[in-house]
From TrEMBL:
The record marks 31-32 as: Contributes to redox potential value. This is Thioredoxin. It comes from Actinorhabdospora filicis. The record marks 24 as: Deprotonates C-terminal active site Cys. Keywords: Disulfide bond, Electron transport, Redox-active center, Transport. The active site is at 30 (nucleophile), 33 (nucleophile). Belongs to the thioredoxin family. InterPro entries: Thioredoxin, Thioredoxin-like_sf, Thioredoxin_domain. One of its GO terms (molecular function) is protein-disulfide reductase activity. Residues 1-105 form the Thioredoxin domain. GO terms for cellular component: cytosol.
Length: 119
């Protein structure tokens, strides 16, 4: 699956749906972001059941600020609208595939219960 550019207008709708959404927070001036981009694209082509979004932090500064992005690249994973993973830094292909594997294995009933407890 190709990656999807996310904006202030499309971000919320994209991450709150059912299923898994990965988000790559990046900027054009960021060397590590540029090195990570081919890995992210390659992994997106291996997982047709996952949405792979990208947020340009320069174009979407308000969105990046609202998400608490302080370092890029940062990868976030949402499942069924719940943030279940967030990590700054470049992940190797094997690491990104492992994140997806673990997100798929989550017991979402337990995750929802934990979220309820925290609220």
């Amino acid at each position: 699956m190709a990656t999807v550019d996310l904006t202030k207008e499309t971000f919320e709708q994209t991450i709150t749906g059912e299923g898994i959404v990965l988000v790559d927070w990046w900027a054009d001036w960021c060397g590590p972001c540029k090195r990570f981009a081919p890995t992210y694209k390659s992994v997106s082509e291996q997982h047709e059941d996952v949405v792979f979004g990208k947020v340009d932090t320069e174009a979407e500064q308000d969105l990046a600020r609202a998400a608490g992005i302080s370092s890029i690249p940062t990868v976030m994973a949402f499942r069924d609208g719940i943030l279940v993973f967030a990590q700054p830094g470049v992940l190797p292909e094997s690491g990104l595939n492992e994140v997806i594997k673990r997100v798929k294995e989550l017991d979402m009933d337990k995750v929802r219960a934990q979220v309820e407890e925290q609220n």
